[in-house]
Amino acid sequence: GDTARNAVSAAVRGRGAQLVATESYSLSVTGIQAAAGPAASNLMANGANAIVLTDGPTGGLAFISEALRNNGLSSAQAQFLGLQRWDVSAEALSQPSLQGGAFAAPDPGLMAAFEGRYRNAYGEAPQDVAALAYDAIAAVGALISEARAGGGSPFSDARITQAAGFAGVGGAFRFAPNGLNQRNLAVLEVRDGQAVVVERAARGFESFAN
């Protein structure tokens, strides 16, 4: 929606790239079909070489990606980039229009290691929120350890928002001074119906980026 579009716009500008166009559509088959033709023409006319799709597998992702390709926006001209996890849907990964597209997700290798430890401890697969709960408790433990070693409050603003962040199950994470959280994610590319890691999640941070 608008929140995702605004975040993408800010990220593009902040990294010196050029945002050539934004497009929206009603979340229905007819809405997507009506918007896809003009959107594809506008994107091609403006020379877009990457298209960020804020939609996901449970919404209109398959429909909008297929409609844009069918209206002339080829994969050779523009790669689809996703903000949501496409790998939660085998149907999305097998979608011809999404082949070659890329999306961000928790690092599969790190997540597999966590899931293995969890199974060994509890005899079953962890639920999706288990990793977040683990990260929360681990962060609290790290803050308390730092306070014991260096003094001061373990939960001061400075400690909670430290630029180095914390080691997370699926990649490093941290809390920004503006109240938002940031996570290092892996980049995966869709190849022959499979999500292939093309860039691992970074294990740490350097400094806060505006």
Describe the overall structure.
The chain is an alpha/beta fold. The protein has 2 domains: 2-105, no CATH class; 108-182, no CATH class. Helices cover 40% and strands 14% of the residues. Helix 4 links the parallel strand 2 and strand 3. Helix 2 (29-45) packs across helix 3.
Strand content: 5-15%
Percent helix among the residues? Answer: 40-55%
Count the beta strands: 7
Tally of individual domains? 2
Structural class: alpha/beta
Order of helices and strands: HHEHEHEHHHEEEE
- Cα-based radius of gyration, to the nearest Å: 20 Å
Unreliable spans are none
- The quaternary structure here is single chain
- Mean pLDDT comes to 92
The rough form would be described as: globular
List keywords for this structure.
210 residues; five-stranded mixed beta sheet; two-stranded antiparallel ribbon; alpha/beta; 7 strands; 2 domains; 7 helices
Task: Give the secondary structure arrangement, pairings included.
Elements: H1 2-14, H2 29-45, E1 50-53, H3 61-70, E2 79-82, H4 90-94, E3 102-105, H5 108-122, H6 130-150, H7 157-160, E4 173-175, E5 181-183, E6 186-191, E7 194-199
Helix pairs in contact: 2-3
Short description:
With 210 residues, the chain is α/β, with parallel strands linked by helices.
